[in-house]
Amino acid sequence: MLTPVGIVDTGRISQDTGHTFGSTREAATGIAGRYYMNHNFYESDPDAFTVSEQITPDRGWHGNKVPLTLDEAEASIALSAVSGGMFEIGDDLPALGASPQRLGLVRNSDLLDMARLGRSSVPLDLMTYREEDKQPSVFLLNEDNRQWILTIFNWTEEPRSHSIAFEDLGIKPDSSFTASDVLRGGTLPITGGRMAIDQPPHSVRMFKLVRNSVTAQPPDFEMRVPPNARAGETVEFRASSLGESPVLGYRWNFGDGVAEDGAEVTHTYTQPGSYAVTVEAVGLDKRSPTKTTTIAITGHVPTIYDPARKERYGGER
User: Quick check: 48 pLDDT over 70?
Assistant: First the structure.
């Protein structure tokens, strides 16, 4: 794991996944044990998640002869989300599109926010998991100063129960907390700062824990746009976060019908004029403020061929 550090941008942190619950379970130990590598060594690659009812009977290794149950599909995509790294689907897309419920998993806004945030969930029982759980099962992600994502897997063949106190999670409880079910909807009762969670075999439960006594804040950011430029030249645009509320991404609109995503982008204007440049900072739970400024473009892009201006680019022979 250490040999490519500083050389690669992305590193596989566990074994290949597949269209079976067993392959998800086997990949989970590597993801749990190497959570700290994400964005410290490189962007973690947990391998692809699979949520469709696709079967792969011609594969000897991790080839499934029966479709994943919905519980098993949820475990696959949840494991990818808690890794905080790459978020890539490994399904036959027509097969996925035939199941609206499973298609909804890849459109789940909370899971997408986890992927865009890019932080690994911390395996709370990495070295202390119960013998009957077989392996680390409880993960916690602190998204900002008012909300967390709690993920609990049942890797076993039997129903499992957990009684989890907020203090065990390192969260100071108060009466304002709500626990919303990320995958199935609804809320989980909280009694005395504790949650009782029951789950079937081969499953995962995910809850968004929100401290409602803290007001949700949209992300604060700054945009850096030059006041002027010439038509035909490459212009650099930058945006950066200023506050505690995380920015999951930036969306630029250059005012000439062209848009692009990214914290640092470039654009070339082809006509003179004054353009309104707008950038949206995408935050958690669709809290996405925008800022706008103007850029003055002068000059023009020549359309007459001039051999003297021709430039050739290339390396040494």
Answer: yes
